[in-house]
């Protein structure tokens, strides 16, 4: 595949390039003049050619990635299956319309999503999951870590749908399955049963599952939370899996457990016992936003000294919606004071040298009822949330939803770490999917008005992050 008239985000925005991209690899990057079609000995018979000559130049980016997405519970609030033109007659699709939030509270979200879970059917899980993946592909996403819940309610139903989806989208979408304990595994009436289901699944679905995840904060007390962490580490080591925690999702209601995670990983000798390339992701971690600079420094020091491959994951769309809810509406309570605790990811990367990335977590359910799951919209939201308004910030944010996200979940990131650390987004020899973003020549006003005006051209990272291009201008290249 030969791509002409290309703008590369790391290079002079006035320069135009011809990029040869074959078998998922950038073979060459050569200067071209605007719109010129290059062909010759260096590019024998390209099988496919994207000629944008005469048209505005296109931008080339690394493909986007979801480092954290719940594959089994998207679109619960917007499914409306009974009104679907072709599926309406089918009875295998449950109705969730009565579970539309009434108060929008966290406890209601937990309760309604729990009720929804009891209604899942294989066909419904497959349909919503495939819609999520198809939408992601149109947005420029080609890989994800997909969380599927395993417990006494779902059994392995969610996992089986994920395995089926992985097969259906094979080669087109890299779907990494994370076996996930959303519910307690060391407390509550069902803890033991939930744990047994998880453990059996890791044995029975070896090969299909690539990561194990848990939620220590849902356990009834700190002791059970610690057991949860220890158990998940053990499972990851035993089955050669990546490890993923939903952690410290509070703003001061309990002591942070991140220190325990590091301690228990060290005690389990993670760095010497794990296979190369296995990573650890810590998501949410809102409690860390209350750390002093000194505590942040201590955290970074402990992680660097231990050599643990820990990646922090910001999930701002969920955190903004869930964190900082007022306790009550009494005269003395401060209903207007709502700290939206979400990890300050760009600062963690830049100021503390930690690994960080961003994910959308949920799409269209009671935990995150808003948004389309678009990673570029997420990066754009980050400009405001993180007060990250420079061109350099824009590059960090783009990395957080593309190569940084892939690195976090242990996927290949191009096979050239040294080039990545130099800061280039794309280079000759890079392996991996790409995202082509076209520029519009015109902005057309609604048809009947018969007007069009020249479109602004996107030529840099800031243009893409500050003003994410519409979906129809994005094309995934594999
Ligand atoms: Zn999550």
Automatic annotation (TrEMBL):
Domain of life: Eukaryota
A single MF term (Gene Ontology): hydrolase activity, acting on carbon-nitrogen (but not peptide) bonds, in cyclic amidines
Residue ranges of the region described as Disordered: 29-59
The protein's name: Amidohydrolase-related domain-containing protein
Lineage: Eukaryota, Fungi, Dikarya, Ascomycota, Pezizomycotina
């Amino acid at each position: 595949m030969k791509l002409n008239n290309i703008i590369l985000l790391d290079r002079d925005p006035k320069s135009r390039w011809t990029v040869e991209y074959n078998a998922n690899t950038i073979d060459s990057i050569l200067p071209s003049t605007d719109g010129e079609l290059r062909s010759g000995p260096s590019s024998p018979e390209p099988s496919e050619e994207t000629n944008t000559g005469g048209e505005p130049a296109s931008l080339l980016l690394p493909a986007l990635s979801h480092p954290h997405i719940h594959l089994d519970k998207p679109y619960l609030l917007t499914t409306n299956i009974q009104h679907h033109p072709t599926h309406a007659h089918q009875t295998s699709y449950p109705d969730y319309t009565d579970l539309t939030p009434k108060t929008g509270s966290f406890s209601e979200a937990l309760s309604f999503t729990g009720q929804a879970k009891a209604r899942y059917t294989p066909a419904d899980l497959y349909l919503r999951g495939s819609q999520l993946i198809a939408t992601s592909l149109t947005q420029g996403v080609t890989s994800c870590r997909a969380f599927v819940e395993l417990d006494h309610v779902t059994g392995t139903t969610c996992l089986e749908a994920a395995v089926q989806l992985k097969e259906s989208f094979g080669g087109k979408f890299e779907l990494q399955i994370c076996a996930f304990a959303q519910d307690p595994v060391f407390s509550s009436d069902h803890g033991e049963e939930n744990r047994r289901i998880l453990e059996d699944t890791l044995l029975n679905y070896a090969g299909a599952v690539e990561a194990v995840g848990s939620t220590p904060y849902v356990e009834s007390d700190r002791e059970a939370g610690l057991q949860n962490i220890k158990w998940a580490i053990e499972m990851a080591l035993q089955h050669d899996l990546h490890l993923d925690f939903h952690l410290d999702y509070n703003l001061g209601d309990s002591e942070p457990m991140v220190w325990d995670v590091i301690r228990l990983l060290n005690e389990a000798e993670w760095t010497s016992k794990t296979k190369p390339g296995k990573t650890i992701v810590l998501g949410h971690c809102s409690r860390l936003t209350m750390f002093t600079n000194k505590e942040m420094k201590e955290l970074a020091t402990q992680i660097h000294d231990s050599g643990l491959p820990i990646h922090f994951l910001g999930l701002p769309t969920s955190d903004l919606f869930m964190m900082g809810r007022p306790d009550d509406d009494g005269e003395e309570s401060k209903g207007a004071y709502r700290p939206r605790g979400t990890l300050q990811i760009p600062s963690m990367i830049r100021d503390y040298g930690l690994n960080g990335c961003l994910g959308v977590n949920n799409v269209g359910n009671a935990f995150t009822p808003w948004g389309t799951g678009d990673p570029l919209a997420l990066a754009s939201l980050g400009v405001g949330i993180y007060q990250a308004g420079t061109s350099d910030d824009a590059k960090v944010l783009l990395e957080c939803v593309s190569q940084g996200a892939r690195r976090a979940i242990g996927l290949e990131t191009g096979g050239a770490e040294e080039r990545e650390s130099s800061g280039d987004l794309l280079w000759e020899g890079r392996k991996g999917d790409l995202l082509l973003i076209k520029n519009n020549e015109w902005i057309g006003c609604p048809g009947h008005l018969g007007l069009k005006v020249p479109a602004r051209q996107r030529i840099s990272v800031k243009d893409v992050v500050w003003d994410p291009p519409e979906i129809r201008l994005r094309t995934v290249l594999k």
